[in-house]
Amino acid sequence: MRLDKNTYGTVLLVYAISAVLIFILFRFVNNLWVVWPLTLAILWVCVWQTAFHMVPRRKKAGSSTLVSAVADGKIVHVEKAYENEVLKRECIMVSIYMDFWDVHANFWPVTGTVSYTKYHPGAHFLAFKPKASEENEHTCTCIRTAEGKEVFFKQLAGGFARRIVCYAEEGLEVVAGEQCGIIKFGSRIDIYLPPDADIQVQLGQTVRACETIIAKL
Fold this sequence. Notes:
Largest sheet: 8 strands, antiparallel
Order of helices and strands: EHHEEEEEEHEEEEEEEEE
Strand order of the largest sheet: 11-7-8-9-13-5-4-15
CATH topology of the largest domain: Glucose Permease (Domain IIA)
Number of strands: 16
Radius of gyration: 19 Å
């Protein structure tokens, strides 16, 4: 595992604030029954934030015909939806919701070429709400496979997320299971698949990035 390159500053800030808080506790609070539990709680936050921003090593199950999960989390939507930004057709949308305890690194769902990417500023509604897909801050990316199939996905900010990182560039050759970005704090991924895709997951299922197959193209 490694720390995501765009989160060094965030993690260092957490450590710095924690160090100041622990110093204040030991300097100004004389009750050890208060100091030690609070110190342990602060250290736990440091460990949690480090793990939160880690990029795990995973087995890469995806390919140009097998769509793997972009993120860890729970399947909250599997439904038909019209994608009106790039594909402009009815698709099957699969949504993965990430909570505070999930790793928030994101990974390419298929092997292919990035044909489109765009960042959209927006609101910060809770990520599991339906309107979040259109109104929340998000980044859109479309990948065209060697077989000519297109997979479109959105990285959606949630109620507490304040930064989306996406490494997509038009023309970039990508491999399923390699890191494509990270979203900080609660958020969601919407994957738009061709209508003839064979969906391999169901509502409420917990998935793991890179390893869980979402659909067969």
